[in-house]
């Protein structure tokens, strides 16, 4: 019986990224849907759970993606509501790679600093990846400054994260220029930049002036990158005492985590692979 | 040469149900389209018939689905109009499982009662499945009461069915409450409930009070089911003298019929697998 | 690692034609998108180039199709803009079969006439295929009359072609009736009819009256065909001294060219298979 992954994407066009990774994770048949909402997903979930016997349902699974984390969360919630009794399949949500990228980045950082004692900053912290990075750092006990162009949105993201974890400490900050972001980074041991493609937070030459910074990770692979001094391919390279990771440097781990998470979907028919479970997979991948 | 099934779904999102069954029926490549109408299907049919030589066209086939039977019928008709000479592929229509579910249910009933002499009732009879159930019962010679909330729609469905068969007898009935439906079921030997998800026709305890009823089949798998006294998994279980089938109990046969019908599409390039042929497959599946 | 082809179709529904050919060309996973524009393609290109390592990117490729050549060209241009450095995949554009059909037709004609000295006419010359036919004929040095119902559109197509080649000679002509088209065909050695389905340029009996015509090719497979005296299946058959090809007669070569071009996409990660390269493939296919 073939392994079928059903991709529910909340964007109009289903992500090619998630499709390629699914194929490379061993999925044999991939059903991809764009434009998925909590309103239109129920019939598709019923089709998934009523076509194979309970003992075989572990061969069907659901992946929720898209660029909007809140939309993905709402779809995953509806998917779970549509299950009942043994009629269910395993599901994961990784809208815009929020979980796998964030997990890979935080797991990478954990190799170099004690996350439970670190002062961290997350420029681009209200985006899909940034919010999960901040959540995982907080769950490890870090003090996290979450930065956005809008302090209101930063504060709102912090509040959402505080609802998921009792550890760590979250501070919202607003910055509309590269200079303001650089000033906020001063004194932080860990920087994880999680902005949109083309947004530069730290211009060339700025990184070496941040004396306290031990680890800097830039998750933007599309030039101009988020931290100009870090090449997209860099992986734990040291520049002036700062251990640096570029998006593609983290991307290798992220890819393995993403593939591993998709593979795990087919081990049972009732798993929900969430942020915490994906982070656990990332720690395993880095340790292996 | 790979077996390609082209799924034309009249709903915006192509059914996962039909996709999973296609994969499990041995289809090697599945091209799924949502939002198909008679107006936009022609180019897709031409692409199907002009890409492989006539001798190889049996490796390409068309499946028409979606929740709306009339829309599916219109698409199938257009598909057939777009063929010419040897440039054609086999096609089947099973909008909302109307043909396969109805065929499986009526074939199940036929094991227990003489359909040519039975008094049957079909609550939810104007829906995609219900209409085919009533049609197949009539084609076997049964007296069928087709029930809907709207007597006008019930009458309209009966007239459509009368145009397809000269045997049997069809009576339209309207019922807006569970009590009205229960009253109509009184005196009927065979009940096949074919309502929408969540519509309960016979409440708990009602089935045992229908003294004449020999067989009761509920085709709704999503709770609340259509006949409260029948579990979705039941298959020919007897309760108080009534042989009962739930949706999943019929579903096993339906699935085999659906898979078998899809497989048959690839035996030639000119088959049209319609309600009557699917019922023939169902009788074979039950006999084997 | 599986060969993935990503199909970007500018029509609302991705072409079944291109999908079947992709499967028959050995593509192992086909990701099909309809409704693609330069505005929505970038995220999908990033997903294609950021999921596999540079050394493995030759296993992913992009195919741009749809019925509108200008729209396909705009998408291909955007796709190429979205690549950077080694992060790229091979790509081809064949909107409405413009390149493969035109290449197959012109390569077929080249077997029978000296294209560098021929007087050619292309009824339906502003359509997706006709424009490429005229372009390839001109690139071989032919004198080409490009015919459309609108002389303005014919002139505009000629100007676009003149920008791509310095050889040959292009003349625009308008014709709104079959008689006008027949008059224009008088004195031409080579006719390649490239009209839309159902448009007849030369009515029955007209072909034998064109004394100078040596080769006539009709690229319309859907009756009524473009040249009534040519059967769709004909392949180099002679009628009254005219060597004739119907759409399916050319179609065999077109199919091989299309499949070969798709196969070639997976030989490297940086090929752009354009009109000229596809014509080179067509000459190879015909020679072999």
Q: How far from one another are the termini of chain A?
A: 30 Å
Number of helices of chain A: 9
Total domains of chain A? 2
Unreliable spans of chain A are none
CATH superfamily of the largest domain in chain A: NAD(P)-binding Rossmann-like Domain
Over the alpha carbons, how many angstroms does the gyration radius of chain A reach?
19 Å
Percentage of residues in DSSP E strands of chain A:
15-25%
The overall pLDDT of chain A, averaged over residues, is: 95
* Oligomeric description of these chains: homotrimer
List descriptors.
homotrimer; about 290 residues; alpha/beta; Rossmann fold; seven-stranded mixed β-sheet; five-stranded parallel β-sheet
Would you give an account of this structure?
The structure is a homotrimer of 288-residue chains. The first copy, chain A, is built from 9 helices and 12 strands. By secondary structure, chain A is of the alpha/beta class. Chain A folds into 2 domains: 4-93, Methylene-tetrahydromethanopterin dehydrogenase, N-terminal domain (Rossmann fold, 3-Layer(aba) Sandwich), CATH 3.40.50; 100-250, 3-Layer(aba) Sandwich (Rossmann fold), CATH 3.40.50.720. The longest helix of chain A has 19 residues, at 247-265. The radius of gyration of chain A is 19 Å and the shape is elongated. In chain A, 58% of the residues are buried. Chains in contact: A-B, A-C, B-C. The B-C interface holds B 1-2, 4, 6, 29, 31, 33, 35-36, 40, 43-48, 50-52, 60, 84 and C 11-13, 15-21, 23-24, 30, 32, 67, 197, 221-223, 248, 251, 255.
């Amino acid at each position: 019986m073939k392994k079928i992954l059903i991709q529910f994407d909340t964007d109009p066009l289903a992500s090619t990224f998630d499709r390629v990774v699914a194929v490379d994770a061993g999925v044999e048949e991939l059903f991809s849907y764009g434009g998925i909402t909590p309103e239109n997903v129920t019939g598709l979930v019923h089709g998934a759970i009523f076509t194979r016997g309970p003992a075989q349902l572990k061969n069907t699974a659901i992946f929720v993606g898209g660029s909007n984390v809140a939309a993905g969360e709402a779809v995953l919630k509806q998917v779970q509501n549509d299950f009942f009794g043994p009629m269910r399949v395993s599901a994961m949500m990784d809208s815009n790679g929020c979980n796998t990228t964030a997990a890979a980045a935080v797991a990478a950082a954990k190799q170099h600093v004690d996350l439970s004692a670190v002062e961290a900053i997350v420029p681009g912290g209200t985006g899909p990846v940034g919010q999960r990075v901040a959540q995982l750092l907080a769950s490890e006990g870090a003090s996290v400054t979450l930065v956005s162009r809008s302090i209101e949105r930063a504060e709102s993201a912090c509040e959402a994260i505080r609802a998921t974890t009792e550890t760590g400490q979250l501070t919202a900050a607003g910055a509309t220029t590269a200079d303001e972001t650089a000033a906020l980074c001063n004194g932080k041991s860990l920087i994880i930049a999680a902005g949109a493609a083309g947004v530069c937070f730290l211009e060339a030459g700025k990184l070496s002036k941040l004396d306290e910074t031990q680890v800097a990770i830039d998750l933007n692979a599309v030039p101009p990158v988020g931290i100009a001094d870090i090449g997209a391919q860099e992986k734990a390279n040291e520049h002036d005492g700062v251990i640096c990771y570029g998006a593609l440097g983290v991307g290798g781990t992220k890819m393995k985590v993403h593939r591993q998470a998709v593979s795990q979907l087919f081990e049972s028919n009732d798993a929900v692979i969430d942020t915490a479970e994906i982070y656990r997979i990332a720690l395993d991948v880095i340790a292996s």
